[in-house]
Give the backbone structure.
Amino acid sequence: MNSDSSTVARLSKAGKRYAAVLALDGIDLDVRRGEVLALLGPNGAGKTTAISLLVGLQQPDSGNATLFDAAPQSLAARRRIGAMLQATSLPETLTVGELIELFRSYYARPRTVADIVALAGVGDLLGRLYAKLSGGQQRRAQFALALCGHAELLFLDEPTTGLDIDARETMWRAIRRLVGEGCAVVLTTHYLEEAEALADRVVVIAHGRVVAAGSVGEIRARVAQKRIRCVSALAGDAIASWPDVRSVTRDGDRIEIVTDAAEVVVRRLLGEDATLSELEVRRAGLAEAFVEITSEAQKEAA
Ligand code: ATP
């Protein structure tokens, strides 16, 4: 396999089909040492399938998946990863503390219980039966289990879904600390602010294909849209009819305009309203870029 030393996991032209559904359409994906890679995409895009190939739960129908330059099914490679997946079945009769001990026993060099508890913030759950925990508590326990082995690569599939704000912040802090220790993280999320806060690189998947890849800044920059906010007496309907204006919303005397040509629109606003104030122009966030990229992909697929 032609892989440089910074690649810890790779899909090469990987395809996967479930009967009539083409879940992955020959995708290429590299995960590099020590980075947080966010996999984004609408429901059914193929994110979970991509992860399941990389962790060796499934095999590609075509192309290749490698983990630390080995087959993802290899025990040596799997011992170097931790995973928090969407479908997880754990023994119902064990407490969280017992599960942590069980998972630690799989590794030659496990993380200490104290470290796992501190990182995942599960001190309050250790004596509780896993099966009786709430959905959010189970996610926190699953995160703790993913940390048991000093992983060099963590797969986190929608880790913060259903978590309260405190638990989410604890998880973000833990991810940052692990990355500081050199761990790579593959994260899928529908919370774009999460990708924006954590990711070094973003890969957007739609219909089983990579439709955009780059840093958060690069993905944002692919979208020319800007958001203009101001206080103005001009009628929203009139502004909405100007060229390159995508949308106008009014909240009292405040107007928000989304446009592809901010300079032109700002000049016209100032020309038509001498009383205009509190002018603010912002670049598109990841959320706007994501909507635009995936709707383009949707049109192409149609
Ligand atoms: P979500 O954001 O909803 O979790 P995803 O991007 O993770 O979506 P996948 O779970 O990888 O998407 O699914 C990709 C496609 O493959 C979907 O159309 C899904 O319905 C289909 N699919 C996934 N697993 C199976 C399966 N075991 N059997 C049949 N179809 C499947």
